[in-house]
Specification:
- The structure is a single chain.
- The chain has helices spanning 22-33, 38-45, 49-62, 108-119, 124-131, 135-147, 167-170; strands spanning 65-69, 72-75, 151-155, 158-161.
- It is of the alpha+beta class and 173 residues long.
- The chain has a two-stranded antiparallel sheet with strand order 1-2. It has a two-stranded antiparallel ribbon with strand order 3-4.
- β3 (151-155) and β4 form a beta hairpin.
- α2 packs across α3 and α5 (124-131) crosses α6.
- The radius of gyration is 17 Å and the shape is elongated.
Length: 173
């Protein structure tokens, strides 16, 4: 039996699908779902994490995968216009995710984590850097948001909004 993996990233990439290995196609499909770590990719595709890291770094060299933080990869969305700088720290006061609680029941860090997870999966170290808090603080807030059912742990150290509570966010596009 031959298994065929089709590229289903949902956007055009500067690669010929016919030239990709099955592992490369699988990596791109996982990135199409959201941010990934090499360990997560390796586990999902049953390949070594080092092989996943090599593939991810190859795509990064080719310019269509970016590394927003050490060990965290995502598909490049678009280039920033020249002269536009990315703010170092995020605004933690705006709640982008619809949650079944009043806004004032969340600390600014929790609101910031929800905002960042609306953008895609993340690891605690990335969240801590973006929100200018300690990694332990980010982990603690993630545990609380997980307990509330708003966030779920996708893989070791990789978190995302809980799909059941994320329906309204996905419908906004």
């Amino acid at each position: 039996m031959v298994s065929v993996i089709r590229l289903s990233v949902g956007r055009s990439l500067p690669v010929d699908e016919n030239e990709l290995t099955p592992a490369e196609t699988g990596v791109l499909n996982l990135l199409g779902e959201g941010r990934c770590t090499p360990a997560y990719v390796g586990d999902e595709l049953a390949i070594e994490a080092d092989t996943a890291r090599t593939i991810l770094n190859g795509f990064r060299t080719d310019g269509f995968v970016v590394k927003p933080y050490r060990g965290l990869y995502e598909l490049r969305v678009e280039e920033q216009a020249s002269g536009e700088g990315k703010e170092r720290y995020r605004n933690t006061e705006t709640v982008l995710a619809d949650v079944p609680f009043e806004n004032d029941q969340f600390r600014p860090t929790e609101r910031g984590i929800l905002n960042l997870l609306v953008e895609g999966r993340a690891i605690p170290a990335y969240l801590a850097r973006e929100l200018d808090v300690t990694q332990e603080c980010a982990k603690s807030r993630l545990r609380e948001l997980t307990r509330l059912g708003l966030v779920r742990r996708r893989y070791r150290g990789l978190y995302e909004l809980d799909a059941e509570n994320d329906k309204s966010v996905g419908d906004r596009a």
